[in-house]
Known about the structure:
Keywords: ATP-binding, Ligase, Magnesium, Metal-binding, Nucleotide-binding
Pfam family, one: GSP_synth
Protein name: Glutathionylspermidine synthase
Helix content: 25-40%
Strand order of the largest sheet: 1-2-19-18-17-3-4
Domain Glutathionylspermidine synthase pre-ATP-grasp-like: 12-391
Largest sheet: 7 strands, mixed
Shape: globular
Structural class: alpha+beta
Amino acid sequence: MKLEKLEALTNEYLESIGFIWHTDEDKTSYIANEVVQITQEEAEAYYEACNELYDMFCEAGDYVIENNLFHEINIPFNLVDAIKESWENDVHWHLYSRFDLAGGIDGKPIKLIEFNADTPTSLFETAIIQWALLKANGLDEASQFNNVYEALKDNFKRIITLDTDIEKFEEHYQELGWKILFSSIAGSIEDENTTKLLQHIATEAGFNTDFEYIDKVEFSDDGIFAKEQSFEFWFKLIPWEDIAIDENELALLLTEILENRKAIIFNPAYTLMFQSKGFMKILWDLYPNHPLLLETSFEPLQDKKQVEKRCFGREGANTKIINKDGSIDVETDGAYEGHKAIYQEYVELPKDEQGNSYQAGVFFAYEACGLGFRRGEKILDNMSKFVGHIIK
């Protein structure tokens, strides 16, 4: 793989645009001062692969619901009704998500690792920082597979227009005037500023918006309230599974709000199905040996190097790479041990000359819309770096 060295963005500049989480605990920069060189053909292959994968997820979503496979993929029972309600009604629009992929460069085939469909991180990095990095180095910032910002703006408009022409957003919105409340957990600047970036994009799209921390939002049979106002739309950068596990009463109340048409929540509850790594087992059942998929099972795979991970787990926690003979290559601990395990065929990630691994992340907002990379060790964790890209 080819890397192009660049002049790093200063911390002062990053902070001036709201990107505060630029330095890791070990005092090294989280944003790499180099970019991965890819070809136009590789960019197009990522685009096509993720559009195809999304269609497959939608087909498999129907299958899970029709066959009541929620327990199988580790979905908490108290959100099943919310998932069904949001799936059956088009107004529950999927705003954005991110596919994590192996391969795609150096002639390696693209393989789906997992789908961050509910609360994907690295939005700010992909949509804003990559552009700034290329621009600051006098490079053509359009020389990348990255229109995340515009794609999100258009997708916010589709909350109102759905599958019809987004040019009609303004006339429809003027009749409704529905407001979006954006919420994150107090105390996480990354979550807060990512949420506020989304709020900014929604405001640019033409919505009336507001922001409030989750602990100050009120929920009742009548809907969702903050600052003595009711909101027809609520965006929360809080994982659905956390609500299900930690806030049972809220999970049931949100289901009631959805069923009584008092508010619409983003990302929709059905994204929890996609978020579950157990969903990859369903995909493999429906599309066995599909070139974009890795074999996945709820039981250890026979005679294969594989990865054991949890249906719900983040940043590489509770993950094991298991050799063909059953010995453990490398493993991590974490807080997700209580979730169901899946076993996924191991695939080598592309590596640089220093032996660092690179995982592609492709954002999806109505269609595939932007690429970025995470760089780290064999298991990518919360110390992995964000690496931009340039098309050469």
